Automatic annotation (TrEMBL):
InterPro entries: Ergot_Alk_Oxidoreductase, NAD(P)-bd_dom_sf, NmrA-like. Residues 4-221 form the NmrA-like domain. This is NmrA-like domain-containing protein. SUPFAM superfamilies: NAD(P)-binding Rossmann-fold domains. PANTHER family: PRESTALK A DIFFERENTIATION PROTEIN A, PTHR43162. It holds the Pfam family NmrA.
């Protein structure tokens, strides 16, 4: 039997998708998690479970022992760079041949100094380039599952959409497409030589999103103008400050670029915002029925 692929972040939204897709490809999967009970409830006996934490080097090495590849994903935190660098180093020591990392959005990383989260991811990417291991870094744009759900729920409740980013356009990407590219890079003969910038196939403003929602709901959907200028939080947690910086950068138009990474790697178009909205209401109607 082949050596397992270690998946970190497997109990989160994206990690679950990656794990499920690897299992569909008949891959042997081991998940590294602080919540083994949750992992067992999600995946049953289809995966190996390695309980531990990035900060616990012994558990990290134990999880990586005998693996061949590492899917590297962890939540936004002030320890992100330290923990991911430790994981990458442990992977090399334990003999892993490939690392696929979920990085920050391209506009948080380049240029440097505009995002505390982007700078942390950039530090990990830089470290990976110095290691003797094949690696790919995925830089996904704003996720539909994170950035659009609140707008969809507002429309469903008859409320106007909050124009959090003003009139700025965003090329939203579906988390399922991110997972598909991650698995493609884990299983491909070779990985991409440069960071992969993942976006949807179109760039939409909040008014475009309102129009798509109006077609599905068969009624007008309004947009509430922002009440003031967005500014990063100076206090609060690392995550809150990072998210505030994301909003400021998106509002300045930094998330509008469209790439062809998904069709190039997967041979199909990215999932669209229109289809994401349709699926949401179809699932909602199925539950109600």
């Amino acid at each position: 039997m082949s050596a397992p692929i270690l998946v970190t972040g497997a109990t989160g939204r994206l990690g679950q998708l990656v794990t499920a897709r690897l299992l569909e490809h008949d891959q042997r999967v081991r998940v590294f998690t602080r919540r083994p009970e949750t992992a067992r409830a999600l995946f049953g006996n289809r995966v190996e479970i390695a309980a531990g934490d990035f900060a616990d080097r012994d558990s990290l090495h134990a999880a990586l022992a005998g693996t061949r590849k590492l899917f590297l994903l962890s939540p936004i935190s002030e320890r992100l760079a330290e923990e991911q660098i430790a994981a990458a180093g442990a992977a090399v020591i334990e003999g892993a041949s490939r690392i696929v990392k979920i990085s920050g959005s391209d506009w948080t990383i380049d240029p440097s100094g505009v995002s505390i989260s982007g700078d942390a991811h950039a530090a990990v990417e830089w470290h990976l380039r110095g290691l003797n291991v094949e690696h790919a870094c995925l830089r996904p744009n704003a996720w539909m599952q994170v950035s659009l759900l609140n707008s969809i729920r507002q429309a469903a409740n008859g409320q106007p959409l909050e124009a959090r980013y003003g009139a700025a356009q965003v090329s939203y990407i579906d988390a399922r497409d991110i997972a598909d590219v991650a698995v493609q890079q884990l299983l491909a003969r070779e990985v991409a030589e440069k960071p992969i910038i993942l976006t949807g196939s179109e760039s939409l403003s909040i008014r475009h999103v309102a129009g798509l929602l109006a077609r599905v709901l068969h009624r007008p959907v309004g947009v509430a103008e922002p009440s003031g200028r967005l500014a990063p939080l100076l206090g609060g947690s690392f995550e809150h400050r990072a998210v505030a910086q994301f909003a400021t950068l998106i509002a300045s138009g930094r998330a509008a670029a469209v790439t062809r990474a998904v069709p190039t790697l997967l041979g199909r178009a990215p999932r669209s915002v229109a289809s994401f909205i349709t699926e949401y209401f179809a699932a909602d109607a199925a539950l109600a029925g």
